[in-house]
Design brief:
46% of the residues lie in helices and 4% in strands. It contains eleven helices and three strands, in the order αααααααβββαααα. It is elongated and about 75 Å long.
Length: 243
Amino acid sequence: MTFCDLHHIAIDPTPDTLSLFINPRSVDNYLSGISSVLEEFYPQVRQNRRSRLVTRTLRGAKQRYGVPIHCKLPLSCSDLETTLASIPSPPSHDDLLFVAQLFDGFYGLLHLGELVWPDNSSLQTFEKLTLRTSVLIGSAHHSFGNTIVVQRTESADPHGAFCSYLSSWDRLFPFNSFLWLRSDGTIPTRSWFIGRLRALFPESILGHSLRSGGATSLAASGVSFDHIQAMRHWSSDSFRVYI
């Protein structure tokens, strides 16, 4: 109403007046809200919302004024090799922790939040932490958290990295319950992990790069989209935005 008063536009939601409300950042929700409110008084509003003038104006506004989505770059297998080459010999416990989490996040298609604690202490909950007792070790794979299974690979092997970390964990924390622990016994946080990541890669590589990189690598190696979707139980094909 205020918009119509300010610009001396009729309240009747015709295609001409609806097309004037278009803002590329929020237009879909905005026009849907207008239609919902006015439908009782103007039964034709939804038909006008779908008119050629409105849809073409919407498409043109998004193309001209829309803000593009800037996705972070995916990690690659060569990035994992770079990480391995950067680790000193002998590696510290925290070095082994970072490599194991990086590799498992990549090959397990994990969100960073599944591996580390949030920085905001009010969001930190022990119930969401992975337990050491959930770990199963096979000859060519390992699993943890009941659903995460990671296979051995020929290069940048996540299985070897995880077993090396686990050996250090067993030596340092024989009576602790939680799988992912720093050398001082604290839970690794997002800022700790991102700090390690930033020391190796540019700002275009962030936590989400693990999951997107793993999905991209699988697709490039010929794994079907259906199999990638099933691996992490995606309920839709939204995962294709990574590839």
